Description:
126 residues; 23S_rRNA-intervening_sequence; Four helix bundle protein
Amino acid sequence: MMNxxxxxxxxxxxxxxxFVFSIHIVEQYKRLTGSKEFVMSKxxxxxxxxxxxxxxxxxxxxxxxxFISKLSIALKEANETCYWLELLHRTHYIDAEYFEDSSRRTxxxxxxxxxxxxxxxxxxxx
Length: 126
């Protein structure tokens, strides 16, 4: 597998990282369903890929408030993704290495989303 992270273009880091994260989640979903785990992996797939989809939606938000709302929903999906990752790890469906890597990636997205939301709220209130 090629290192997708090297392809990030830096023009919109949040958008690019969330897309790479979605690819990471889809690949894990394929592994999990191959081992016959369908319920939790589907939840991980849904929440993990929703982050990037919501960030893409925010690009064409109707207003600054709509932009903030979409990023806030992406933040909730990222938090839910953390939950599913932890549950899959604690039930031994994913190993510690994958869990640590995925958790780090998710928390990076959370930090970026929080910063973007805070900045947008400050601009909205001016």
